[in-house]
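thread from #wetlab-drylab

HS: before we spend reagent money on co-crystallization trials with adenosine-5'-triphosphate, can we at least see a predicted complex? here's what I'd submit
DV: go for it
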Amino acid sequence: AASSPILSTTGLSASYGHARALHEVDIRVGEGELVAVLGPNGAGKSTLLRALLGLVANSGEVRFRGASLPRQNAVAVASRGIVLVPEGRGIFGPMSVADNLELGAYRLHDKAEFARRRERVLTLFPRLKERLGQVAGSMSGGEQQMLAIGRALMAGPQILLLDEPSLGLAPRVTGEILETLGLLNREGLAIVLVEQKAPLALKLANRVYLLSLGRIAAELDPRDITSHDDLAQHYFA
Ligand code: ATP
């Protein structure tokens, strides 16, 4: 059932200098929903996430739980619990796994809550538990992605935005990571999953937006997409 949105945009546009990369995008993410944003290279998927976070020059409106978010203000956005797992993961390679996790919770001053979140992350990703003292940059790509998600969870997100978490990963580890995202979503966490690889995202998503040339080309119910061919047809419709 579609609930009231936790996050929604109206006419969200974004530009790099004079080049507009996002045009009048309207999307909504319901409380507890997992929304996939699919699109080819350069469609503007990363730009959409950056615009939601106020990390790129943008216009239009972003609402979080009914209130308009101040634009161009990434700190204000982050303090509401809108947390990004960026493309390329953005972890600190020379630092240990434990220190990377701690950085995710830098706003948090409650020790018990810190311990609770850390335990939760290490339960979700047992491989991180085995590697707490390891230098993050020496881990496999999949482990680094787990760490990036773990660090985001340490921030206590109200909504988690992920930019191509499967990028460069083998199908098996991608499946593991997406399963964990599915679990978090079933527990009630709202998620926006940006992906190029559609089949995996479609399995999890409640709703799908297709992004093409910086515009929303379609909004789909994943149950209506029976094959990859269907999706390609939608793209080029
Ligand atoms: P990819 O999967 O390749 O990252 P994407 O769908 O995330 O693709 P974006 O990275 O959002 O696409 O790029 C959308 C458009 O904006 C592209 O035309 C890109 O060249 C342009 N663009 C992205 N970042 C910048 C930047 N920092 N400066 C100038 N143009 C940019």
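DV: The pocket of adenosine-5'-triphosphate is lined by residues 16, 19, 21, 39, 41-47, 196 (CB under 6 Å).
HS: ok that's useful, forwarding to the group
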